[in-house]
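Per reviewer request, we include the raw input and output of the structure prediction for the construct analysed in the revised manuscript.
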Amino acid sequence: DASTVYGLIAFGLLLLSQTVLNGVTRCLCFGKGLLRGTSSTTCAIFFFVFSWISFLGAEACLLAGSARNAYHTKYRGIFGGDDLSCATLRKGVFAAGAALTLLSLLGSIFYYWAHSRADTGGWEKHQNEGLGMTSSSYAQQPPEFEKA
């Protein structure tokens, strides 16, 4: 059945996107660190948890929906049922998977945005260090060519 294949493809692509996101941001655990005490860090942690919860819910819905749909359609004849019955999946399983996928997408985007704002990149921010802006001491020289 096409919906089984689409569900499994969505499952795989969602898994791939979460893997890429956590590989790029180093999953909040393995990076150089985030700025401490900023709202961007708090948002990054919140959206990290939010994206993972919605990701796990979406994966569960997509996998369960695909497996159940495959049982009721494609594999029904193999396991002893000759005719397809009306016993199918609840209508909302794939819809819930799609909604949670969308929430996972939004959570991942906001997590990446907040993480990039709070990421130190391995460098610590120093304030009031170094040389300030000064005026130069050399005077402007007149142009070499003058108008005739």
